[in-house]
Structure formats: structure tokens, C-alpha cells
Amino acid sequence: MLFGLLNLSFWGDVIALLLLTHITIIGVTVYLHRSQAHRSLVLHPVLSHFFRFWLWLTTGMETKEWVAVHRKHHAKCETIDDPHSPQVKGIKKVFFEGAELYREEAKNADTLDRYGQGTPDDWIERHLYTKHSVLGIVIMLGIDLILFGIPGITIWALQMLWIPLFAAGVVNGIGHYWGYRNFECPDAARNILPLGAFVGGEELHNNHHTFPTSAKLSIKPWEFDLGWAYIRLFQCLKLATVKRVPPELKDMPGKLHIDLDTLGALITNRFQVMARYSKEVLLPVLREETEKANSAMSRALLKRAKTSLIRTESLLNEEGKRQLADIIDKHHMLALVYQYRVRLQAIWSRTTVTQRELLEALQEWCRQAEATGIIVLRKFSISMAGFATQKN
Fold first, then answer.
1. Mean predicted confidence (pLDDT) in 4-23
2. Where does residue 288 fall: left (phi above 0), alpha (psi -120 to 50 degrees), or beta otherwise?
3. Cβ within 8 Å of residue 276, ≥6 positions away
4. Is the separation of the CB atoms in 387 and 249 below 8 Å?
């Protein structure tokens, strides 16, 4: 039985490994992450328990521990209390030791009590999955040996490494360090290169941190969320019910007045609104100022200014803050549209005023923006009257 009951070729073993780890990834992203941690969908009890059982076999992870650590990550993101922020602990630490950081935080009883509420607490969870978490991966080793023979040891070892490498290292590490940002969420989360087959859509990390309670992680037309594809399949099979997806900002042609519907759309879709403001106001003014610059040094400074102008100020390092201050000091037009961006953000940040007061603040913002004489700012202000939230 050197090659096990299946007696597969080398490539057969590779395909089997990819299939086994693929199921694990789907279990993590659909069950642990979207269903348990964020409650963005409800899974049928049969499917939910299948994933619980499979993750017990292939990772030894306990639902409550994983959920608690992840929720704390969101609650304390990019602070010293974040269990695995590369911005705080360093990218090398999180990438290479992400699994160790997870295990360390999972031992914190306060974390489990505060952030682990609502996870499974039935007889089998208490007496098998939690009490004998190591037993599952030992059983998996036996299954791999029986099915694949001696190569099963390698298959099992790679199964055990898959989540620590891709989930802990790639998503928690690289996903907060390198990549592109669709939205300026308050933390450093980024979307990284398409790795859907390996991490099930979790590579769309900036999208997720912007809309953490959404069952769907893809936003742009070119982005593919493999986990969402499985959720749609489960929906068709009556095995899943989606509770939330990202709001969509739409335009209502012909609507000319800022009203409470406009205010609601602005607040609900504030990240999309800010992305549009950067695209339609900040960047065109930046290009115009760059073209008018009368020295190579000024042009070089302005070309480097894009990130500083659109990034949430709390995420800028000291160099970025100095660069931003320099640009604002030397370029009046950029300073003005940047200030209007800050003022627009401040409207939805006010939590102690009435809805009517917020509406009046938005209307006043629009009046003043249109009075500046800056064409792109005036066009954006006028277009805001037509903002509405797409019903999903």
C-alpha cells in the first residue's frame, strides 16, 4: 500500500492536495469568516456542520477562537491591540509568524469572552471539537496515509501549512501592507493580486474592511470573489441565505435638489462618494496644477502627491504628512479642494446633531463649493443631488 488505496500518480496527488485545501479555504472564508465572524449570511445547519467538521480535521481550529481573534482584529485594527497588524508588528513578523500570533491571542480568555459571542456551543463543540482539537488533524493524517500512502504524509503536511501561509501570512500580512485600495477605509487594508483559488476571495481585503458585514467581497467589475461564487451556488441549493452585500451608489438623472434621500445616500455610500470625489475633483485639479508647474521640482512633488491627497490622513507617515503640508501651502487650488474633501467627510462624522442639521450642513457645503468657481468641484456638487442608494 505504498501509494494508498487511490494509487494516484504524482499529478493525481497534486490535484488531490489542491482539492482538499480548496475545501478548507472555502470553509474558512464562507463559514468562519463571513457566516460566523460577520454574520453576513446564514448557512443551512447541515452545511455549517460540514464545515465545522472539515476544519476540525484539516486545521484543528476552534470556531470561537478564530471568530474572536478576527473580530478583535477589526475592533482594534492597526493598533497595538490588533493581534496581527503588520503596520504595528512588522510585515516579516506577521507573514512568517502569523499562525503563532493567532495562537497567542487565542489563549487570551478576555478576547474569547468579549469577541467570541454567538459561536457554536453545543455538545459536540464542547466535548469533541474544542476538547480534542488535535485529534482531528491526527485523524486526517490517518486518512491521508490510507488514501495516498507514503505521499499522504506530504499531502497532510501541506494541508496543515495552507491556512498559516495563505490566511495568516498572505491575507493578514500582505493584505495590510501591499496592494491597491478601492476605498479609503480607516485602516491600511489593501486588495492584493488575484489569488482567489488559494484564498477564496479573501485577497479583496480593502473591500472587506470597507464593508465588513458584506457577504460579497468583490466590488469592481474585474474583481473575482470565489467565496461569493460558492455562496451563490449554496443559495441556489437552498443552503445559504445572504443578509448583506455592499451598498451601491447610483445616480438619478433629473434630480436637482439636495434632500434627505441625498443625505441618506451620502452616509450609506460615503466610501464610494469619497472615491468619486478623488477621481472627479482631486485628481483632475492635481493634473492641472502639475501641468502649470513652472519647475521640474514642483512637477516632481505634485506627481508624488496623489497618495498623500487621497489617503486618510491618520494613515500617512511623517514624510506623507510633510508632503501634504507642503502641497497645501504652495498650491491654493489643491488646498481648497482638499479642504472641501475634509469638510464633506466631517458631515457624516457628526453624531450629536439632528438629521435636519446634517441636511443643512450638506446643502451649505454644496452652495459654498459651487461658489468657488472651480469647475470640477461645482460639477461634483451639482451631481450629488442625484445620489441614491441602489436597492439590493
1. 93
2. alpha
3. 249, 380
4. yes
Helices 226-236 and 10-26, axial angle in degrees (round to 10): 70
Longest dimension (CA), the chain: 82
Strands 240-242, 41-43: pairing kind: antiparallel
d(CA 320, CA 359): 33
Decide if 58 contacts 89 (C-beta within 8 A).
no
Q: How many CA atoms lie within 13 A of 387 on its CB side?
A: 28
Q: Where are the beta strands (DSSP E) in the chain?
A: 41-43, 240-242, 248-251, 387-390
| pTM, rounded to two decimals | 0.90
Query: What does each C-alpha distance from 211 to 19, 103, 251, 391 come to in angstroms?
Result: 29, 26, 21, 16
Q: List the grid coordinates of 78.
A: 492597526
Q: What is the pLDDT of residue 392?
A: 61
In this structure, what is the dihedral angle of CA atoms 370, 376, 377, 380, given to the nearest 10 degrees?
90
Render pLDDT for 251-279 as a digit per residue (tens, 0 to 9).
888 888 899 999 999 999 999 999 999 99
Mean pLDDT of 222-239: 96
Place of cell 491526527: 138
Specify the higher pLDDT residue, 307 or 114.
114
State whether residue 349 is helix, strand or coil.
helix
CB 347 within 8 A of CB 365: yes
Instruction: Concatenate the DSSP letters of all residues of 163-197 into one string.
Output: IIIIIIIIITTGGGTSSB-SS--SS---B-S--HH
